Amino acid sequence: MPFQKSYDLPLSPSDQVCIHLRNKSMYVTGSIEPEHPEEPGRRHCWCNLTQHVVGPDQGEVDRPKCIPGRDCYRSSY
Q1: How far apart are CA 62 and CA 43, in angstroms?
Q2: In a structure prediction context, what are the per-residue pLDDT tens digits for the chain, which is 77 residues long?
């Protein structure tokens, strides 16, 4: 069986993420959604409040998880 590469389905641009979500691609490309999903480090996210991969609510920090409905979510400062 040949190797097949698959990616998570990207969220639509209209999906809001928490203003405290950070990842490496934001500092390299200026966007939280890199053009090249195979880019090393693209999935490594952290919370700007805790400076860790765990948010203030003790939940995992990730692009699909830091959305409205989460207790620590903020849409603006």
Answers
A1: 8
A2: 677 776 666 555 446 889 999 988 777 766 665 455 555 555 688 999 999 999 999 999 988 889 999 999 999 88
- Provide the token pair at 66: 């830091």
* CB distance 33 to 9 below 8 Å: no
CB 53 within 8 A of CB 61: yes
What predicted TM-score, i.e. pTM, was given to this entire model? 0.66
> Token match 């500092």: residue?
27
Dihedral angle, C-alpha 51, 70, 7, 37, nearest 10 ° = -40
